Amino acid sequence: MSVISVVGGQWGDEGKGKIVDVLSVDVELVARYQGGANAGHTVYLGEKKFVLHQIPSGILREDCICVLGNGMVIDPEGLVEEINQIAEKNISVNGRLVIAHNAHIVTPIHKAIDSHREKGLDKPIGTTGKGIGPTYVDKFNRTGIRGTDLLNLNKLEKKLNSRLDDAIKNCEISIDLKQDLEIKIKNYLTVISKISNFVGNVYEIIQSHLDNSQKMLIEGAQGTLLDIDHGTYPFVTSSSPSTGGISSGLGLPLHKIGRHIGIFKAYCTRVGEGPFPTELFDETGEELRKIGQEFGATTGRPRRCGWFDLLAAKFSVHVNGLTEIALTKLDILDNFDEIKICTGYKINGKEMSSYSASMCDLENVEPVYTSFPGWKVSTVGFHHLENLPGKAKDYIRYLEEKLGIPIKIISTGPARDQIIEG
């Protein structure tokens, strides 16, 4: 089949942006199906660095159409910033960017609600403050603002002012913010006028590509372990980054997708709060962060770092129905004398058989590790699997064997051409 999905297999930040860019070389359409500006996909083209938050990485490929699907919550202000930033590097979105008319839209009110709520929690979730959660809440309360509302600014302004009044009435925000938000709404409407022409019928575009057997790439944001249903609840995102979110987020049946590629780092990272069984609090964790430049593309927050979690990865493989794996940042492990993989859990001394069996008690998990000798040789820029150091190949083969699916793509550096494809 000519449709491929790319999803995060861990807690996000696995390097999906680069893999989507690599895979979109001969693809006619790339579509995002969930999340919003709380995602950050970083791609390097030569000396140019692109950090994309909402626009799919396919925009860096000439003539590739990029879709923001109905399952997303789209931030117009962030989108305009993104469009301007890539325009400075001679990338145009004209005729290549489409916003689903039934996608929900983030407003300054949602961002204010997000910040207000997070500050009031005894145990903060660690959100990005981008208004994602409150926008999804409005969606399911059937009071949301959608892409189609951007086509009539007068009606939109009335909706925004009504939502502001409701937010104050329901104590979602303080009345002290009203004047500031009224000014932000005026500026927001100016921004809307710059992107309203991108609103279109995404469903028809996708169906047309399917009917004509044109190649499509489906791009997820965040990772499976942050899924609202399958993740480390309540420390999760507000959408379904797993493959299950594709059908509802794009109107695309899963049986139309021929390859489901899961992106995994050669180790694990997590941003924000929540359980993380293999997190390292020692010099090794600090070294992983430093060498891997593990700082959030959206917030700049330092990422928590740890060893590869095999149990969590198996869970992700099964939940998503993955057919293959792309392993990123293998080169970050080049300088370690010893490399570990978590191959089991213990809770209060009792061995746990799976991630799902431990999901509600992950904060009490004691990881059980299998150790591997480091290869102590640079793998940066390798293009062929057979040229990798033997110990690196052993590490990869072990993961393949235990996860039960092939690792077909290996990233050996941040650049577009630093890749092994098998």
Report a brief summary of the structure.
This protein has 422 residues and is α/β, with parallel strands linked by helices. 31% of the residues lie in helices and 21% in strands.
What does the secondary structure layout of this molecule look like, with pairings?
Layout lengths: L2 E6 L7 H8 L5 E4 L8 E5 L2 E5 L12 E4 L4 E2 L1 H12 L9 E4 L3 E2 L2 H12 L12 H9 L12 H17 L8 H18 L3 E2 L1 H10 L4 E4 L24 H7 L8 E7 L2 E3 L12 H10 L11 E3 L1 E2 H11 L3 E5 L9 E10 L2 E3 L2 H4 L7 E8 L16 H14 L3 E5 L7 E3 L1
Helix pairs in contact: 2-6, 3-4, 5-6
Walk me through what this model shows.
By secondary structure, the chain is of the alpha/beta class. The protein folds into 3 domains: 3-7 and 25-101 and 201-259, Adenylosuccinate Synthetase, Chain A, domain 1; 104-196, Orthogonal Bundle (Adenylosuccinate Synthetase, subunit A, domain 2); 264-421, Alpha-Beta Complex (Adenylosuccinate Synthetase, Chain A, domain 3), CATH 3.90.170. It has 12 helices and 20 strands. The chain has helices at residues 16-23, 76-87, 108-119, 132-140, 153-169, 178-195, 202-211, 244-250, 283-292, 310-320, 355-358, 390-403; strands at residues 3-8, 29-32, 41-45, 48-52, 65-68, 73-74, 97-100, 104-105, 199-200, 216-219, 259-265, 268-270, 304-306, 308-309, 324-328, 338-347, 350-352, 366-373, 407-411, 419-421. The strands form 5 sheets. A 10-stranded mixed beta sheet has the order 9-7-5-2-10-1-11-15-19-20, with helices on both faces. A hairpin with a 2-residue loop joins strand 16 and strand 17 (350-352). The chain is globular and about 65 Å long. The two termini are 18 Å apart. The model has no long low-confidence stretch (mean pLDDT 93).
